[in-house]
Amino acid sequence: MFAAGNSVGAGDGSGLYQGVLRQNLAFMDRFRVVQVGYPEPAVEKAIIKTQVPKLPDLIAEKMITVAGEIRRLFVGAREGGAELTVTMSTRTLVRWAGLSLTFKGAPKVFEYALSQALTARAEPEQQEAIHRIAADVFGDYWDGSQP
User: Fold this and answer.
1) DSSP 22-41
2) In terms of C-beta density within 10 A (0-12 exposed, 13-18 middle, 19 or more buried), how is residue 124 classed?
């Protein structure tokens, strides 16, 4: 059995995972703890292609780039600490990819799908920042002027 958690059972000392409580030591004693980061871009692309095979490679690569930038800002890779309070898991990335095909043909499909997959639950300033990142990465594809 595998169990995943963002706090290693210690609660949320970082402020990144609000609401995560400290786990009972007797319970935690039953697990080994292994730190696992996000998959490499090539692995995430393979995951996306498995789950959403009709998604064009170029779009998958752009989505992975957006996810990487969101994650970088979430963990605080800059000197000032974390700049985003939401991040994009691989599960959310796959959801974004799938919704992009589900809503194919809709105006601003990638923006709408990103909102449904992630940013609808973010603060307005964070929504704007994430969508700005995506617009920069997607270029003309973002507003639908490219197929």
Assistant:
1) BPPHHHHTT-------PPPH
2) exposed
What is the distance between the alpha carbons of residues 59 and 79, in angstroms, rounded to a whole number? 31
C-alpha span between 58 and 146 (Å, rounded): 12
Q: Is 10 helix (H, G, I), strand (E, B) or coil?
A: strand
Please state, in angstroms and rounded to a whole number, the distance separating the CA atoms of residues 133 and 83. 13
Q: How far apart are CA 28 and CA 135, in angstroms?
A: 42
- Average pLDDT of the segment spanning 131-138: 96
Output the six-digit token pair for 89. 């898991």
- Measured distance CA(132)–CA(142) in Å, rounded: 10
pLDDT tens readout for residues 29-51? 787 777 788 999 999 999 999 99
Question: Please, which residues bridge with residue 10 across strands?
Answer: 22
- Predicted confidence (pLDDT) per residue in 80-100, tens digit: 556 888 899 999 999 999 999
- pLDDT for residue 8 is more than 70: no
- Give me the residue spans of the domains in the chain: 1-36, 41-141
